[in-house]
Structures are given as C-alpha cells and as structure tokens.
Design a protein that fits this description.
Layout: H1 3-8, H2 20-38, H3 40-60, H4 73-80, H5 91-107, H6 111-117, H7 121-143
Helix pairs in contact: 2-3, 2-4, 2-5, 3-4, 3-7, 4-5, 4-7, 5-7, 6-7
Length: 148
Amino acid sequence: MKFWRFIASGFGSGLAPKAPGTFGSLVGLLLGCLLLTVGHIALLTGIVVASAVGLYAIGQLPEAENDPSWVVIDEIAGQMIPLLALYEVSFWGALLSFGLFRLFDIWKPGPVGWADKRKDEIGIMGDDIIAGLLAWLVMLVLHLVSPL
C-alpha cells in the first residue's frame, strides 16, 4: 500500500469490509484520548496535524476526490474535536463524544451536508470537521448540566 493511501485510509482502518467510517472514528477516538492524557494543547495539535495531513493525502490521490468509503482520515480528525470539551479522559465522555460525532457525521445536518456535497479535499475533510465542531458544541452545552 502506498504511503498516502495508507494515511488517507486511517492506517488501514478504512479498509474494514463494513462500517469503515466507524472504524476510522474509533481510531480517532483512541488517538484523541491518548493525546488528551497529555493535555488539550497536544489534542489540538493532533487535530490540526490530522486535518492538514488529511488534506494533503487526499490531494495526492486522485481516486480519493470522489470520497470513497476507505478514506477515513477525515473521520479521525473530526472525531478528535469533541474530545476538547472533556476535562480529562473518561469512559462516558469518550462514549458521548463518539456517539455525537457519528450522529452528526451520518445525519449531516445543515453545514455538514453542505460541505459533504463538495467532492474535493475541502469537502471531504470539511464535513467531518464541522460534524466534530457540532458534537463539541453539544458537549459544551452539556457541561452546563453535568460534568463529563
């Protein structure tokens, strides 16, 4: 497997025969939780790096511009975003982060759907970044009710 395809496929997680986006999201959740144990700056850096590398990797693969299901670097970057709302890694916080991100990624409300209609690297990465931001906002609102 070529290097940029390996990166775009989320280190191979996007090659899962069923639910590749979910497997990519799980990689993002694991990576994000590991970075959060170091701190929020490490997690934010990971999000920026995954997003930039994802944009570049997709741009290097002409076949990736049609947003095939095996491209999951976007899910990895997007899944890490709602973890920024956690004070520290917790099972319930990670589960909520995962569930909200997948909900917005699959449902594609408003700006998520708009970005998804673009079939270039900005659209491929953008819909998941926006889904991650929406999940992050919901988690911030939930902080008003209960600590996560």
